[in-house]
Design brief:
about 170 residues
Protein backbone atom coordinates (compact mmCIF):
# COMPACT_ATOMS: atom_id res chain seq x y z
CA UNK A 1 0.00 0.00 0.00
CA UNK A 2 1.17 3.54 -0.68
CA UNK A 3 0.25 6.80 0.95
CA UNK A 4 -2.32 9.01 -0.72
CA UNK A 5 -0.69 11.89 -2.58
CA UNK A 6 -1.99 14.76 -0.43
CA UNK A 7 -3.71 14.76 2.92
CA UNK A 8 -4.97 17.67 4.98
CA UNK A 9 -4.63 17.46 8.75
CA UNK A 10 -6.99 19.82 10.52
CA UNK A 11 -8.12 20.46 14.04
CA UNK A 12 -8.80 23.28 16.41
CA UNK A 13 -6.14 25.58 17.82
CA UNK A 14 -4.08 23.57 20.30
CA UNK A 15 -4.85 20.20 18.71
CA UNK A 16 -1.24 19.66 17.63
CA UNK A 17 -1.20 20.56 13.92
CA UNK A 18 2.16 22.36 14.07
CA UNK A 19 3.73 19.59 16.19
CA UNK A 20 2.42 16.95 13.76
CA UNK A 21 3.81 18.91 10.80
CA UNK A 22 7.24 19.09 12.48
CA UNK A 23 7.16 15.39 13.40
CA UNK A 24 6.23 14.38 9.84
CA UNK A 25 9.14 16.46 8.51
CA UNK A 26 11.47 14.69 10.96
CA UNK A 27 10.28 11.41 9.43
CA UNK A 28 11.19 12.78 5.98
CA UNK A 29 7.64 13.47 4.79
CA UNK A 30 6.80 16.73 3.09
CA UNK A 31 4.47 18.65 5.38
CA UNK A 32 3.17 22.18 5.18
CA UNK A 33 2.25 24.19 8.24
CA UNK A 34 -0.79 26.12 7.03
CA UNK A 35 -0.11 28.98 9.44
CA UNK A 36 3.43 29.49 8.15
CA UNK A 37 3.04 28.49 4.51
CA UNK A 38 -0.45 29.62 3.48
CA UNK A 39 -2.02 31.72 6.25
CA UNK A 40 -2.79 35.41 6.24
CA UNK A 41 -5.10 37.83 7.99
CA UNK A 42 -7.64 39.60 5.77
CA UNK A 43 -9.50 42.65 7.06
CA UNK A 44 -13.24 41.96 6.76
CA UNK A 45 -14.09 45.46 5.55
CA UNK A 46 -11.09 46.66 3.53
CA UNK A 47 -9.63 43.35 2.31
CA UNK A 48 -6.17 44.48 3.45
CA UNK A 49 -3.80 41.55 3.95
CA UNK A 50 -1.59 41.09 7.01
CA UNK A 51 0.92 38.32 7.55
CA UNK A 52 1.08 38.87 11.31
CA UNK A 53 -1.76 38.55 13.79
CA UNK A 54 -3.50 41.84 14.51
CA UNK A 55 -2.65 43.03 18.02
CA UNK A 56 -6.14 44.44 18.50
CA UNK A 57 -9.59 43.99 16.99
CA UNK A 58 -8.96 40.40 15.91
CA UNK A 59 -12.68 40.11 15.18
CA UNK A 60 -12.22 42.54 12.29
CA UNK A 61 -10.10 39.95 10.43
CA UNK A 62 -10.50 36.55 8.82
CA UNK A 63 -7.69 33.98 9.10
CA UNK A 64 -7.53 32.53 5.58
CA UNK A 65 -5.32 30.32 3.50
CA UNK A 66 -4.04 31.57 0.16
CA UNK A 67 -6.11 29.01 -1.79
CA UNK A 68 -4.24 29.57 -5.06
CA UNK A 69 -0.96 28.81 -3.29
CA UNK A 70 -2.45 25.60 -1.86
CA UNK A 71 -3.69 24.57 -5.32
CA UNK A 72 -0.25 25.24 -6.84
CA UNK A 73 1.28 23.00 -4.17
CA UNK A 74 -1.24 20.28 -5.04
CA UNK A 75 -0.30 20.49 -8.73
CA UNK A 76 3.39 20.07 -7.89
CA UNK A 77 2.96 16.83 -5.94
CA UNK A 78 4.37 14.43 -8.51
CA UNK A 79 5.05 11.12 -6.77
CA UNK A 80 5.50 12.67 -3.31
CA UNK A 81 3.13 12.48 -0.40
CA UNK A 82 2.32 15.89 1.04
CA UNK A 83 0.56 16.69 4.29
CA UNK A 84 -1.24 20.03 4.75
CA UNK A 85 -1.53 20.83 8.47
CA UNK A 86 -3.64 23.75 9.56
CA UNK A 87 -6.92 25.49 10.15
CA UNK A 88 -8.38 28.46 8.27
CA UNK A 89 -11.86 29.80 7.71
CA UNK A 90 -11.69 29.01 4.00
CA UNK A 91 -9.91 25.65 4.00
CA UNK A 92 -13.11 23.85 2.95
CA UNK A 93 -12.59 25.42 -0.49
CA UNK A 94 -9.92 22.79 -1.19
CA UNK A 95 -11.46 19.78 0.61
CA UNK A 96 -12.86 18.45 -2.67
CA UNK A 97 -9.26 18.09 -3.90
CA UNK A 98 -8.49 15.48 -1.22
CA UNK A 99 -9.53 11.83 -0.87
CA UNK A 100 -9.81 12.10 2.91
CA UNK A 101 -9.26 14.59 5.68
CA UNK A 102 -7.52 13.89 8.97
CA UNK A 103 -9.06 15.57 12.01
CA UNK A 104 -7.04 15.94 15.20
CA UNK A 105 -9.82 15.51 17.69
CA UNK A 106 -9.77 16.41 21.36
CA UNK A 107 -12.04 17.96 23.97
CA UNK A 108 -12.24 21.68 24.76
CA UNK A 109 -10.80 21.24 28.25
CA UNK A 110 -7.59 19.71 26.82
CA UNK A 111 -7.43 22.39 24.11
CA UNK A 112 -7.71 25.15 26.71
CA UNK A 113 -4.97 23.57 28.84
CA UNK A 114 -2.63 23.22 25.84
CA UNK A 115 -3.22 26.80 24.73
CA UNK A 116 -2.53 28.16 28.22
CA UNK A 117 0.73 26.19 28.47
CA UNK A 118 2.23 26.28 24.99
CA UNK A 119 5.38 28.25 24.35
CA UNK A 120 5.62 28.31 20.54
CA UNK A 121 2.59 30.49 19.79
CA UNK A 122 0.86 33.30 21.72
CA UNK A 123 -2.59 32.33 20.44
CA UNK A 124 -4.88 31.33 23.29
CA UNK A 125 -3.45 33.74 25.81
CA UNK A 126 -5.22 36.92 24.63
CA UNK A 127 -8.74 38.02 25.55
CA UNK A 128 -11.26 36.54 23.15
CA UNK A 129 -9.02 33.72 21.88
CA UNK A 130 -10.74 31.00 23.89
CA UNK A 131 -14.19 32.21 22.79
CA UNK A 132 -12.99 31.97 19.18
CA UNK A 133 -11.72 28.42 19.86
CA UNK A 134 -15.13 27.36 21.22
CA UNK A 135 -16.89 28.78 18.15
CA UNK A 136 -14.41 27.17 15.77
CA UNK A 137 -14.78 23.81 17.50
CA UNK A 138 -18.43 23.75 16.40
CA UNK A 139 -17.97 25.33 12.94
CA UNK A 140 -15.13 22.94 12.03
CA UNK A 141 -17.41 19.95 12.48
CA UNK A 142 -19.97 21.59 10.17
CA UNK A 143 -17.31 22.30 7.52
CA UNK A 144 -16.26 18.64 7.49
CA UNK A 145 -19.72 17.18 6.94
CA UNK A 146 -19.97 15.25 3.69
CA UNK A 147 -16.24 14.51 3.46
CA UNK A 148 -14.34 11.32 4.27
CA UNK A 149 -13.01 12.35 7.68
CA UNK A 150 -10.62 10.22 9.68
CA UNK A 151 -10.68 11.24 13.34
CA UNK A 152 -7.32 11.02 15.07
CA UNK A 153 -7.21 10.93 18.89
CA UNK A 154 -5.03 13.98 19.53
CA UNK A 155 -5.01 13.44 23.31
CA UNK A 156 -2.43 10.69 22.78
CA UNK A 157 1.35 11.29 22.72
CA UNK A 158 2.65 12.93 19.53
CA UNK A 159 4.41 9.78 18.27
CA UNK A 160 1.13 7.84 18.56
CA UNK A 161 -0.78 10.61 16.76
CA UNK A 162 1.70 10.61 13.87
CA UNK A 163 1.56 6.80 13.70
CA UNK A 164 -2.26 6.95 13.56
CA UNK A 165 -2.05 9.50 10.72
CA UNK A 166 0.39 7.38 8.72
CA UNK A 167 -1.73 4.23 9.26
CA UNK A 168 -4.87 6.07 8.12
CA UNK A 169 -3.00 7.51 5.13
CA UNK A 170 -2.10 3.99 4.04
CA UNK A 171 -5.67 2.68 4.37
Amino acid sequence: LSLHDALPISGNAGSGKTSVSEALKQRNYEAYDGDEDFGRWIHKQSGDIRSSRPAENRGDYYWLWDIEKVKRSLKDIGSKTIFFCGLASNQAEVYKDFDKIMLLNLDLETINERLRNRQNNPFGKRPGDLDWVRQTHVSLEAQLQGYDVVEIDATRPLSDVVSQILEAANA
